[in-house]
Every structure is written in C-alpha cells, then in structure tokens.
Amino acid sequence: MPTESLPSVGEMMAATVPMAGTLNLEFSETTPERAVVVLPDQSAFHNHVGGPHAGAMFTLAESASGAIVLAAFGDQLKRAVPLAVRAEIDYKKLAMGAVTATAELGRPVAEVLAELDAGERPEFPVRVSITREDGAVTGEMKIIWTLRPHAA
Fold first, then answer.
1. What single Pfam family name could you report for this chain, choosing any that match (predicted)?
2. Which residues of 137-147 are buried (b: 16+ CB within 10 A; e: fewer)?
C-alpha cells in the first residue's frame, strides 16, 4: 500500500507564510539542529545598490528561524503555537546576488520542552547567519521565539 509523504518544512512554510512564497525562498536544509534557506537573486527585491533589499534579507533570516522552530517543535503544535517575540538584525557587509541564511537553535530542544511540560511559556533564541555566494557574512540576526500554550 503506498504511503503519502508528509509535506516538507519548506512546503509548510510556503503554504502557511505567504511572504516566504512571495520571495521565492528555497528551503535547502531543515532539521531540528539547522535550517538553510536561500534567497535567489531577483531584481524585483533589489535595493538602490543592486543587492537584496534589507527587508527581503530580514524575511529570509526570520523564515530560516521559523523553519528550524517548525523542525524542532512541529510535533508540539497541538498544545502550543510558536511565535517570534522579538528580533534584532545586524547588516555587516554589502550583499549582492543570492544570499543564504543558516539558522541554529540557541537552546537544547529537551530543555525548552521541559519548561513547556512544566506549564511555562518557554523562550529560546535562534541565531541566523546570512552569507553571500563567496561565503562572506553579510548579516546576523537573533530571533527570540516562544511556545505559547493553547488555552485550556
């Protein structure tokens, strides 16, 4: 009997977060340990110097953070909703061409789940590095996420 495959985290993000689809983001790797998302070079999203607009880079990084959060905590969606609480981004170097965001969780999954199990609303950081094709870091972002328990 054939089994239906579940949608990938990238497919889920594109379906539930329209902005990710609008920017044509490519979810190339998504695990609970790391998410890698690419913003292709697209003139519609360029800034005044011909590189990706700061808003597009912010969305790229935030989308990578969301992908890792879904990969790490997607099995908790019946009891809690993941929400970004705050974010800070530093633009380091001029970005030109395609850029890649790599996200990593800042706390162990088990630690976050232990707080959720204790009835708390855990917060945890996700750190994202944005690089251009030559490997230079063009930006860094830190997003604080929470798992907000559903009302009882």
1. DUF4442
2. ebbebbbbbbb
Nearest one of 47, 84, 49, 85 to 64, comparing CA atoms? 84
Q: In whole angstroms, what is the distance from residue 113 CA to residue 74 CA? A: 12
Six-digit token pair at 31? 């695990």
Q: Which helix (H) or strand (E) holds 18?
A: helix 18-22
Which phi and psi angles does 41 have, rounded to 5°? -70, 115
- Decide: 23 and 44 in contact? Cβ < 8 Å: no
Q: From 102, 104, 106, select the one nearest 138 (Cα to Cα).
A: 102
Q: For the chain, list the domains and their CATH numbers.
A: 9-149 (3.10.129.10)
Tokens of 77: 């969606």
Task: Tell me whether residue 1 is exposed, middle or buried, using C-beta atoms within 10 angstroms of its C-beta: 0 to 12, 13 to 18, 19 or more.
Answer: exposed
Neighbour tally for 130: CB within 10 Å:
28
What digits encode the pLDDT tens for the residues 42-101? 999 999 999 999 999 999 999 999 999 999 999 999 999 999 999 999 999 999 999 999
